[in-house]
Amino acid sequence: MKITIAQINPIIGDIEGNFIKIKDAILKALSDKSDIVVFSELSLLGYPPFDLLKNNIIKNKIEEGVKRILQENFPINILLGAPYFEDNRIYNSIYWIKENKIIKRIDKFYFSNDPIGQGNYFSYGTPDFLEIDNKKIGLFIGDDFIFSSDHSNYKDYLKTSDLILIISSSFYYFGKRQERIEKISQLAKGIEKEVIYVNQVGGNGELIFEGGSLAISKKGELLFEGEIFKEDIKTIDLKNLYPTSSKGEDISFLYDGLVLGVRDFIKKSGFQKAVIGLSGGIDSALVACIAREALGEENVLGVSLPSIYTSRESIEDAEKLSKNLGIEFRIIPISDIFYSYLKELNPSGNPIMDVAEENLQSRIRGNLLMFISNREEYILLATGNRSEALTGYCTLYGDTAGALEVIGDIYKTTVYELANYVNKNNEIIPQNILAKAPSAELRPGQKDEDSLPPYSILDPILKAYVDENKSLEEIVQMGYKREIVKTVIEKVERSEYKRRQIPPVLRIRSKNPLKERIFPLVYKII
Amino acid sequence: MKITIAQINPIIGDIEGNFIKIKDAILKALSDKSDIVVFSELSLLGYPPFDLLKNNIIKNKIEEGVKRILQENFPINILLGAPYFEDNRIYNSIYWIKENKIIKRIDKFYFSNDPIGQGNYFSYGTPDFLEIDNKKIGLFIGDDFIFSSDHSNYKDYLKTSDLILIISSSFYYFGKRQERIEKISQLAKGIEKEVIYVNQVGGNGELIFEGGSLAISKKGELLFEGEIFKEDIKTIDLKNLYPTSSKGEDISFLYDGLVLGVRDFIKKSGFQKAVIGLSGGIDSALVACIAREALGEENVLGVSLPSIYTSRESIEDAEKLSKNLGIEFRIIPISDIFYSYLKELNPSGNPIMDVAEENLQSRIRGNLLMFISNREEYILLATGNRSEALTGYCTLYGDTAGALEVIGDIYKTTVYELANYVNKNNEIIPQNILAKAPSAELRPGQKDEDSLPPYSILDPILKAYVDENKSLEEIVQMGYKREIVKTVIEKVERSEYKRRQIPPVLRIRSKNPLKERIFPLVYKII
């Protein structure tokens, strides 16, 4: 039995566009003389659709889309993911289509308490089999089932199946890929059945789907792995496949994911170009590299926005980086604008030059970049990292201005790793940017370490407190000074209001992307 | 049997502060010679706590807080809402405490699929009774049960109870109060038992809790209604109460809710003062009135930020409003700052003066107000309304800058109703502000109606599309022109990215506050 795994990159809501991709994949499957073509979860609609599911326009389009596929009368078994609307209920379904008939519809029957909140939208289906080519195929929609610890309710279902098919759209976070392969291998081995796993690929808003569809043998061996972060339509025949090894998740994996995230965010939004404020620091340098990789050098603009506190070195570093990347570079000084504000704000007397003036400079930069964005149709990419966002070391409407925080989910220490990866073959990011001490350059001689512990201490404390929910006491026992830990926790707790207004963050490192940290807006614990 | 209803206003996470309020209420109950004192759901912690539940600091504080109450050895039955932590589980519990003992703990056993997502945090308990004074008291935590349509599983439980107690922390939206009273009356009547309903009061972040605790007779009559939008500790004896009528939800109700929301947002954040940009328009005028009511005239600052396009009338209207309110008023012109930007952005040639320059002016205003906020410790209140937020008729980092959107949940047509309510006795908001055509004054002669349909048409279309999920076709059938409906839908669909970055919105009008509109960030349906 030949199976075509159709790992496509849909745009959420764009039924017409997704239909074209689906049709192309079916034609490829037909030319491969395949028996079945399998698409990812909700592929006709794109995943995750959230409240679009409740939108009548979408309902009609989905129903038309399914009709169009039937009308095409394709002589092949098609397993297509799409919602099914019935009275007041919606199901997350797989339509088994052959020629002009829906042979069967199987609705998702197993939900975990997932962060996308599927339970808020979908009703429960009941398990059923697909009988194709004298084989009983067991079908799970989503990878909720794989990641759950208790499979006992489905023992008989699994046992009766000749083959297990998992049709999923499961977003990526660092470490999840390996975990997923292990869980599916265990499942396959435990029931001694082959398992095929089909996943969505592409960036959809903040979420990134890595693709990497799988075929696993009865012994739990990897037989096939689809392309990572790329569309991939491949026809496989399980009996002709041999054990292979997975590509593994290294720093390049993370980088490629961010590149795809930026590319799809901008292109799916209908834009081509990105503008980035280049401070001469490492964060904006890394974002520029990612954007160039995602969009091409002709579509990226770097802007240096020097103030009286900006060193000549910073401007030169930004310029050198732009030259290395082959991107356009502009310089717009902010000093005169800054003084025009101070004149209105302090008509007499000297400016105080504290945090109000520091933030003002950052916000002037935000305004200038947004002006370019509005006038010349560039998407402004914000360049803050996760260490800054968690400690509130950023200026709302200033350096946080933009449509997307590209590295907002990446700790500063990982930013350095990514920058070194970019430079692996030749110096793209000028060495000086990597070597110098991080600084916001908002006052004379300012360094990040005046306000924050060194990142080599800060990041592990943040990971322990935020990602692992460790208490102050437990973190102190890890070997950090109580005073420092306390200061970091205070910074996190007092900056929730900033995180409510920063741009959407490409989620790639953290485990629980959408609900990672839901805190009351106003609360008091410290 | 005397019951003290303790309708308190807790700060989320502030166990020490909440403990003091709880102790005061217990002392009041003791002096009233009450038999039981009943607090709202999770009152020791404050509601909703979200991920604070997973925080070890909170866990320890809650356990200490409960211990402190036991140590006080109060000679009265106390029903106190607090989480119970057990291994890896958390329960939403009522502790029945008397003297130095926890007589019983009842854990929440009925959850709806609520927008706060309680199911993500809490494990299920089992129904149980409180036996006080020879009475079997049935206990429900939260009003999930009241708002569910199916009570059949709890028929026996309800029948066996002598009295039903509903301990809740249920946020307010316009219309919910009446619905709640009706549902509880139906319940009481249906089972022929008295029902007592205890609710939290206060603003907690975006959410507002109205209080208004209730006692309902066996016949479904209202016997007691606690204060609305105020703390209220009252001792009642059901056998001494007579039917009365509810206060009802009129426009004053909405206004009082917004006032409480602003007051608690600012005070619970540890601030005293608010600054508002006064454009001379109705939105900022209304927000200034609400802020003055919430904080007192000495704590509100109005700032006029005129550009070359600002009419003299607008400045005068803003000044007159400030005088009427007795608040401080400043004028900071933005023209020179605007020109200093244009000089850097267009070193040669004339500025184009399109949306880029319009947004720039709005953002200069945002910067100036944030400067005052940073320098003088004012909270900046944003003044956008719901009609603007839904159509994207606003400038990110400009007029949307601020810590809180006070009227972001209120349609423009309701803004007029609220303004007229403010002026019911004398002219607080100058008549000219109410009479003139709405304008952003970002270019010569600009009117809102150049970009949007009249609000009397826009608002019903938005309500139909967003609040009621009606399709284009259905809205056209309501009697609106297809072209206009299509334009409005397009505006809504294309401005999702703006709503991702606007400040938190005080939720008071809409039914589903936290998840009202969860859309993919990037999608395509129009």
TrEMBL record, chains A, B:
Q: Where does ATP bind?
A: 277-284, 383
Q: What class of enzyme is it?
A: ligase
- Can you supply a Gene Ontology BP term from the record? NAD+ biosynthetic process
Q: Where is the CN hydrolase domain?
A: 1-240
Identify the residues that bind L-glutamine.
Answer: 170, 176
The yes or no answer to whether the keyword Nucleotide-binding is present is yes
Hey, which family's this protein in?
Answer: Belongs to the NAD synthetase family.
Q: What does this protein do?
A: Catalyzes the ATP-dependent amidation of deamido-NAD to form NAD. Uses L-glutamine as a nitrogen source.
> What HAMAP family does UniProt report for this protein, alphabetically?
NadE_glutamine_dep (MF_02090)
Know the name of this protein? Glutamine-dependent NAD(+) synthetase
What is the species of this protein?
Dictyoglomus turgidum (strain DSM 6724 / Z-1310)
